[in-house]
Amino acid sequence: MAKNFEQLIDQVSAMTALELSELVKALETKFGVSAAMPVAAAAASGAQAAPAEEKSEFKVTLKEAGTDKIKVIKALRTVTTLALTEAKAAVDNAPTVIGETVPKDDAKKMKETLEAAGAKVELA
């Protein structure tokens, strides 16, 4: 390090907290800068630290009926309130939304039941 820097560091390390505060203010004024963290950076770092909220409701979509449509129609009727004709129409016209705002547990149950019957289901 240059000799000037060593002298400056020695002078700064000998200062009290009040003198350091005054030095920072004087430097901010002299150079037109701020030693404070910018608000946008503080907000961004706070946003990164906050955990992402877990999704609690899902849109359930029957993407494909699979090879055994009868099993899928029966499974669809067990996990929804659809009548036989409505369930058949939903299976025949796949992809079909079968639930708009379904709670997480119910959506998982619907997906498992329908996939066990051979259908392909998407949760969004």
Describe the model.
With 124 residues, this protein is α+β, with helices and mostly antiparallel strands. The protein has helices at residues 3-13, 17-31, 39-49, 69-79, 84-92, 104-116; strands at residues 57-64, 96-103, 120-123. It has a three-stranded antiparallel β-sheet with strand order 2-1-3, covered by helices on one side. The relative contact order is 0.15. The model has no long low-confidence stretch (mean pLDDT 83).
Please list the strands of the largest sheet in the order they lie side by side: 2-1-3
Strand percent estimate: 15-25%
Judging from the principal axes of the Cα atoms, what is the shape? rod-shaped
What is the total tally of β strands? 3
> Unreliable segments (pLDDT under 50, ≥5 consecutive)?
none
Largest sheet: 3 strands, antiparallel
Amino-to-carboxy terminus distance:
59 Å
Q: What is the C-alpha radius of gyration, as a whole number of Å? A: 32 Å
Helix-strand pattern, N to C?
HHHEHHEHE
Provide the structure class. Answer: alpha+beta
Q: Helicity level, as a percent range?
A: 55-70%
How many individual helices? 6
> Quick check: average pLDDT?
83
Keywords:
124 residues; alpha+beta; 3 strands; rod-shaped
Q: How do the strands and helices of this protein lay out in sequence?
A:
Blueprint: H1 3-13, H2 17-31, H3 39-49, E1 57-64, H4 69-79, H5 84-92, E2 96-103, H6 104-116, E3 120-123
Antiparallel strand pairs: 1-2, 1-3
